[in-house]
Each structure stands twice: as structure tokens, then as C-alpha cells.
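Please fill in the sequence for the structure shown.

STRUCTURE ENCODING:
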């Protein structure tokens, strides 16, 4: 004899409480946040790809004159990575030293004012020297005299110290930890009205004696926004799947009168 449960027993297996609105609302909020984060990362991806393409175009463009770069600065306030050629005379006795690491070696970037024909000056990042070659007397061959023509990349100045963890510049020792252009100019005896308002990083053209080593501009902008977008969207889809399975199980419980239940009841009767 096979036991058949009555409708009362079947009804007891169905959810007796109402729809879980609180869980649904919280889940919907989290889902919306995850989708928003993923969409934001997609937007950041397009922005970063556009930025990288712009930098690529600027760095490989034909060099333009300093006057042209100054015109761009006056209208856009952005001349980063634009190729430029400039001629003047290096004021080697006024160089500033920016603490840096190059190819795993600690040392300094040498920022030297280049005096232009109109009496103004622009700071040139001539390149890297090892820590023990900071003093210019240790590299006399690289202290070029007379007119020079330098090709390189224009660089925007910093408006402020980039982070509170960056040390303050040590003006007494002539060691800079961030490129404070007005202070660098003041320490070099260059008046504000005689200062070109941006830097120029010299290219890899070799300097006499091998120092400084030019072409030290680092262009390394990480682009992981696609991975982040996939992560956020993936979490959103996982949440949606978990919620769907939970609701299915809630409203489609196992039938207690199914084959498994029949076998269980038959076993009980046989054992009696």
C-alpha cells in the first residue's frame, strides 16, 4: 500500500510568508550600484583610450616652435607631450636637481634654465645623472656652452604638491621632490615675467660626456578599466542569478507526492 499525503500536508510545504520585499529592494539597490559602477568603468575606458591616442599623436608629431606651444598654452592650458624645438643658451650654473630613479638607479633629473634670445628662460629637463654625479663639477663635459638647439616634449607645470606623502623640497641642498616651477625659477634668479610657464623634457640626443642621459620622459598610464567593468558587471549578473534561483526554489518547492516521497513512504510501511 502506497501512502498519499493529503492537501494539508502539501500546503504546509509552500511558503506561508508574503513576498520578501525587503530582500528584493536591497537586492535591486545593490544590482543598480554594480551596474552603475560597471558603466562608469566603461566610460573611463573610452576616456583613457582617447587620452592614450592623443598622447601617442602628440609624441610622434613633427616638432613645433616654442612660440606655437606658448599659443596653445595660452588658450588650452595643456601642452603635455607636445614635441617642440627651442634654441638658446644653457645657464649651467643655475641648474636644479629633481630626485628621481632611472633604470633602477637613484639620482637626479637635471633641470637647467635655457636663456632665450628675447631674455626669457625655459626650464629644460636635460636628463638623468647618478646620485654621486649631482655636482656639476663631476660632469664638466656635459656642461655645454654657447647656443644649443634642443628638441623634446613640453610638460605641464604642477599647480601644487601632488600628495601629502611627497616630501617638501629641500632648497638648501637644491633637492626637489616635486617640480615647483615658480620656486625653481626664484632659486635660479629668474623673474616671473621672464619665465616660460612650462617645462621641456629633452629627447634622447646624447650629451657630451654621456651625462645627463636624455629622453627620460615616462609615459605609463595603466588602463585596467575593461577588467574593472567586467568585474562589476559579473558581480551584478551573479547577484541576479542567485536571486532568480532563490525565487524559483521559493515558488517551485519539491513535490512531496513525487516518486522520491512515494519510495520513502513505501519504505516506512515496509519497515512496520
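FILLED IN BY: designer on duty
SEQUENCE:
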Amino acid at each position: 500500500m502506497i501512502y498519499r499525503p493529503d492537501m494539508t500536508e502539501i500546503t504546509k510545504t509552500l511558503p506561508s510568508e508574503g513576498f520578501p520585499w525587503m530582500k528584493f529592494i536591497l537586492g535591486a539597490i545593490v544590482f543598480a550600484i554594480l551596474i552603475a559602477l560597471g558603466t562608469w568603468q566603461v566610460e573611463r575606458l573610452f576616456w583613457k583610450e582617447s587620452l592614450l591616442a592623443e598622447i601617442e599623436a602628440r609624441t610622434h608629431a613633427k616638432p613645433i616652435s616654442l612660440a606655437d606651444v606658448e599659443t596653445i598654452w595660452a588658450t588650452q592650458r595643456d601642452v603635455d607631450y607636445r614635441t617642440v624645438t627651442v634654441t638658446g643658451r644653457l645657464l649651467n650654473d643655475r641648474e636644479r636637481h629633481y630626485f628621481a630613479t632611472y633604470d633602477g638607479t637613484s639620482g637626479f633629473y637635471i633641470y637647467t634654465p635655457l636663456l632665450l634670445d628675447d631674455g626669457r628662460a625655459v626650464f629644460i629637463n636635460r636628463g638623468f645623472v647618478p646620485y654621486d654625479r649631482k655636482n656639476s663639477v663631476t660632469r664638466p663635459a656635459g656642461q655645454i656652452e654657447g647656443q644649443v638647439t634642443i628638441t623634446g616634449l613640453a610638460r605641464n607645470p604642477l599647480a601644487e604638491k601632488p600628495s601629502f606623502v611627497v616630501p617638501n623640497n629641500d632648497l638648501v641642498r637644491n633637492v626637489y621632490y616635486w617640480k615647483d616651477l615658480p620656486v625653481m625659477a626664484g632659486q635660479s634668479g629668474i623673474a616671473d615675467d621672464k619665465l616660460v610657464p612650462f617645462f621641456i623634457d629633452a629627447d634622447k640626443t646624447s650629451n657630451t660626456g654621456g651625462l645627463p642621459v636624455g629622453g627620460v620622459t615616462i609615459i605609463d598610464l595603466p588602463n585596467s578599466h575593461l577588467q574593472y567593468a567586467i568585474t562589476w558587471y559579473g558581480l551584478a549578473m551573479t547577484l541576479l542569478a542567485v536571486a532568480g534561483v532563490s525565487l524559483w526554489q521559493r515558488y517551485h518547492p519539491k513535490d512531496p507526492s513525487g516518486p522520491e516521497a512515494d519510495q520513502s513512504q513505501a519504505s516506512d510501511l515496509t519497515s512496520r
